[in-house]
Design brief:
Elements lengths: L9 E4 L6 E5 L7 E3 L14 E3 L17 E3 L8 H7 L6
Parallel strand pairs: 4-5
Antiparallel strand pairs: 1-2, 2-3
Length: 92
């Protein structure tokens, strides 16, 4: 990390192709960050998008346009599971 410390984050990779599957950081234990490369089936179109940490985004990323968009300039206000539950999208 920038300050010389070691990140406590854990990453998981596919043992066949090496694709990154997810990242977990105990500092934000309510979140499991999955990567698009982990999905091998078509995903439904989301009813809304969430753009966060916009002030520190890479210059080549483009925020979502049109439709329902939530924009934050900081950490998530709810975990991924809660976000889906609030919108009736959670599948047990």
């Amino acid at each position: 990390m920038d300050d010389g410390s070691v990140s406590p984050a854990e990453q998981s990779f596919c043992n066949r192709c090496g694709s990154q599957l997810w990242l977990f950081d105990p500092r934000w234990s309510e979140h499991l960050h999955s990567f698009a490369s982990a999905f091998d089936t078509p995903l439904p179109k989301p009813p809304a998008f969430l753009d966060n940490f916009l002030s520190s985004r890479s210059p080549w990323t483009v925020p979502h346009e049109g439709g329902a968009i939530e924009r934050l300039d900081g950490p998530y206000s709810v975990g991924m599971e809660d976000w889906h539950r609030q919108r009736g999208l959670w599948v047990e």
